[in-house]
Amino acid sequence: MQTWDQIINTALLGTDKRPLAASDLPTELGEAAAVIQHHTTDKEEQFLQTAALVFNYRQCGVQPLKKEGVTIDKAAAEEKQYCSVLAMHTLKDILDSESNSLLQFWLQQCNEKSRIVTPDLVPLLLDIGVQQKKLQNAVVACCGKRGEWLSRFNNEWNFSTASTNEELWQTGSPEQRKMVLEQLRKDDAAAARGWVQQTWQQEDVNMKIELLLLLAINIGSADIEFLESLAKEKSKKVKDIAWWLLKQIPEAPLVQQYQQVLQRSVTVGKKGLQVQLPADIDEAIFKTGIEKLSNNKEYTDEEFIVMQLMQAAPPSFWETQLQSTPDVIIKAWQKDVTGKKLLPALVQAVVAFKDQRWATAFMQNSHVFYIDIIPLLPVKEQEHYSIKFIAQFADNIIEHAIKREDTWSIDLARAIFIHTAKSIYQYNRSFYSRYIHCIPVGIVTELYKCAPAEDHLKATWNNTSEYITKLINLKKQTIQSFND
Amino acid sequence: MQLSEEQVFALAPDESSKKSGRELANPAKWVSKGVNELALWGECQGSGSKPYQAQVDLVNIAFKCSCPSRKFPCKHGIGLLLLYARNKADFTNRDMPAWVAEWISKRSERQEKQATQKEKPVDEAAQAKRRQAREQKVSDGIEELLQWVKDIIRNGIISIPEKGSAWFGNMARRMVDAQAPGLAGMIRNLSEINFYRDGWQTEFMDQLLRLYLVTTGFKNNDTLPPLLQQDLRTWIGFTQNQEELKEQSGITDTWLVLGKQVTEDDNLTVERNWLYGVGSDQYALVLQFMVRGQGAQLAFTPGLFIQAELVFYPSVLPLRAIVKKQLNTEKVQQYKGFANWQQVAEAETSYSSTLPFRSERPFIIEQVRPVYYDQQWWLQDNNNALMGIKSGFKSIWKLLSLSGGEALNMAVVGKENVYEPFGVWYQQEYKIL
């Protein structure tokens, strides 16, 4: 409104510098303005009265803005059903509990049952997706068409616009791309490698490293050609990872070459296991990440080189080389001075080549507990050995257990809690909150059995138990709300 | 009583009460529980040997609990209401235990007593003398204030942003001394304007002119109609005796609580409850002041329908009211809003012409949708007319998500061409924003 602008201009500079002119006012106010002029000669008074008049003239005359063509697209109709009222209540309680693990569990259940959240919670979940990149895909799925529509208005939520995995790979955030690649690598290793090869030249070094690490999943002979081509990469780190991956493929020429050297270097003589590198050893192997000098005074340089080669040779190689079974070889090496030294390298080979047969043999025959072998065992055996050795290696066993994606047995959960209840600073509430997805619902009735003997710890455990119970109840409620 | 979970949370005094209340909304925590048309009650097992007795008066929405908490309602009250909102079917007991029956009957006795209580005879001569002395003080203060306003206008407001809050604070204190707390508040509002924001000049001038209108209006009090005189006195800061007000007859209606705005200043919490009378088509503002630690008289939550008698403060444009009698809470009822922005604008014209220095008012407007245009969010009606959404409106995403591009019936509060949404009707349910 032009008249109001004149009022503001005069007010800004002051009546001393810029008096308001009668021509500044609309004709409708002329009569009232004349009355004001007539009644007072005080400049400020005249201005204030006139301004008050214009102020009310302005506010009385306000009209909505008439603007054609301002539109908003309507959100597409939802294809999935909304969650039940109970599921929505549970979600609100979980958001309140601030447990991301529970939230992830809830979102997974929601997604598996093809349900979506009601629109009032969509912005909140999208905001969580901005912070918790790992939850982004699940959030997108649970926010349905409304989430997709809403994210068009807020750039921060643009992670939710891609609908297919392929689109996410092409246009998603680094975290989303890694997630879809990881999934595809599990389902179709060749297709995943194809994705990586397609975009390889456009990736930066850090992304290349991240993507290569994911290729460790389901690695196989079909990956050899691509991995060997990376020998020309500029980044040493990228090359090292490529070598590391190649060393996990039994058919890789590199691994074959290592085996040939090992064949001639490790022999069984009268004095037991002998280690001696052939005089004509191919120097090329030292360009594949094999160090010449020992970094451990307990190993000679020769032993050190052999150990590095052993780590990249499939354990089955030794069955052929020594014409024996895993059980016999392990037992014999444990008694042999050199064999004892070489055993850790053999364990690493078992881990690298994920050899379950050798893993079981190690657990059955070894006096030493190898935590790295645990994940290779069938779940039942993993739990058996974890419980057996938890008193000595609690932290290592827990570290492995929390990497699992499935739920622990009640026996394992009990064994773990007996330890964690005693280490209240290391295993505080956030530990239980973070790994609630692993904790079985049935443990709730056994929590009192995990209480430490010491009185001061007992009180803390009681509080922690209450907290765990609350989390478990939410987990139980989540399961129930999606099963009804 | 049909309180949704959201409405129960709106009653909570703070975030931690919401959190604790949520934890208590667990049937395992409650030793006993029951409900009838008068009350909702339950015994909650706490850390002590005896369970806490929590009870809610459903007629007049009031809480009582035997726990030592100073919060109001306490976490047990929130937990109980929440549990009821979630599992109504579990509340099978309808017979009030003695501790509930006693409290309920005491409350109704007290209300009756209050109604019949007569004020002590007052010394009218002394009262008149006091009134005269105060009016003199106020008039003296107003003269000083007018001089201050004129100085601002003479020198120009361009240098105002540099003045700092102490400069305004001095004049506000002077108005407190002059027993004109309303004017002091208006001056404090001037100092709280964000001078870094575009358009501060208009905001400043609007407030300054309101101040000018109120003060000069008061100077010319004798020439004005009695109701307008009352408005001016209210704005200056003369209080209205609430007991006297309650003696007048009010409007008995079913009132829908549209929104609740809570502000805290030092130890004082101010609750602004915006109401709409379904039958009278009248909007009301019920203020509630609470000193820290003190319980609230009223427990209104947005979306609640209350049958009550409200008495409005005398005004040419009645808005502020007090609750004389709360009769019951009601189930969802029909309401009638403004059909479009043109109707709202016409109502605004009428309000402003009646009371030029008035503040914002609530409106129910039917079928509007949020749209983005010219770098800001607007509310668009079915005639493509737009009104701006208040900048910094926090729940824009929730509003947008509920709308999904469709028009919704909405409760807003605002003035001229800027409005802030309070809540929307989404699938027949009132959702707080």
TrEMBL record, chain A:
One short Pfam family name for this protein?
A: DUF5691
Domain of life, per UniProt, equals Bacteria
Please name the source species: Niastella vici
| Name assigned to this protein | Uncharacterized protein
Q: What InterPro entries is this protein classified in?
A: DUF5691 (IPR043746)
Automatic annotation (TrEMBL), chain B:
Q: Which domain of life does the protein's organism represent?
A: Bacteria
Query: Record keywords: Transferase included?
Result: no
One Pfam annotation, family name? SWIM
Question: Which stretches does the entry tag as region Disordered?
Answer: 1-24, 110-134
The record's annotation in InterPro entries points to: Znf_SWIM
Sorted alphabetically, the keyword list is: Metal-binding, Zinc, Zinc-finger
SWIM-type domain sequence ranges: 52-85
One function term, GO molecular function aspect: zinc ion binding
The answer to whether the entry has keyword Metal-binding is yes
What protein am I looking at?
SWIM-type domain-containing protein
